[in-house]
Specification:
This protein is of the alpha+beta class. It contains five helices and twelve strands. It has helices at residues 26-31, 37-56, 117-120, 123-135, 141-160; strands at 11-16, 65-66, 72-73, 78-85, 88-95, 101-108, 169-173, 178-183, 189-190, 193-194, 197-205, 208-215. A five-stranded antiparallel sheet has the order 6-12-11-8-7. A three-stranded antiparallel sheet has the order 1-5-4, covered by helices on one side. It has a two-stranded antiparallel sheet with strand order 2-3. Strand 2 (65-66) and strand 3 form a beta hairpin. The two termini are 26 Å apart.
Length: 218
């Protein structure tokens, strides 16, 4: 699902289920030693995906440890993103010379819990979701908006090192599988340009919603 949303320079590896996860590096295992079994399985499975992506890029497999605000610290020369939800995980990696940043997210394709949408959406976004729901009632647009905002944050943070609130990006989804996130705060600098928006893509399948953003250098 994820790979089809990203440029060809990106390597994406995904897994349905957690049975084939690789053994964690000791420093990774220490981080989840006291976690419940489900959390340990998810943690290991998504890192297995990341290491397989590293191998495809010719990078020796190595630990993926959390940095500031939990963002993964990638090997030098790589940019990437990871996601997991119940029964699914994925990692996407690219050489940092090919893209400035990546953000991916996957969610179960179901409605958001009652009361969540107002806390994650702007009034204009909520209005657009109602129109999209009339056009494509087969899509849970509220969950899709949430996923897109997660991908926006994951693409934003490596470029800025700053928090981005749900209300600081206005996302316009389209029924053809695309979206644009207009940043409502000063965007990051990529090279000599100031980024004012992120463009992304979305898809559904196998009971999931997936979103992805690739931030070019120019």
């Amino acid at each position: 699902m994820i790979e089809g949303l990203l440029p060809q320079t990106v390597v994406a590896v995904e897994a349905y289920g957690y049975e084939d996860a690789d053994t964690l590096f000791p420093e990774e295992a220490a981080l989840v030693a006291r976690a419940v079994a489900k959390r340990r399985r998810e943690f290991a499975a998504v890192r297995s995906c990341a290491r397989r992506a590293m191998e495809k890029l010719g990078v020796p497999p190595q630990p993926v440890l959390p940095g500031e605000r939990g963002a993964p610290r990638w090997p030098a020369g790589l940019a990437g993103s990871m996601t997991h939800c119940d029964g699914y995980c994925a990692a996407a990696l690219v050489r940092a010379t090919d893209l400035a940043s990546l953000g991916i997210d996957a969610e179960a394709h179901g409605p958001l819990p009652e009361g969540v949408l107002p806390s994650v959406s702007l009034p204009a976004e909520a209005d657009r979701l109602r129109k999209l729901a009339a056009e494509r009632p087969d899509i849970h647009w509220d969950r899709l908006l949430f996923s897109a905002k997660e991908s926006v944050y994951k693409a934003w943070f490596p470029l800025t090192g700053k928090w981005l609130d749900f209300m600081e990006a206005d996302i316009e989804l389209t029924a053809d599988g695309a979206f644009r996130a207009t940043l409502l705060v000063p965007g990051p600098r990529v090279g000599t340009r100031r980024v004012g928006h992120f463009d992304g893509r979305w898809t559904t399948g196998r009971g999931l919603i997936a979103t992805a953003i690739a931030v070019p250098h120019a």
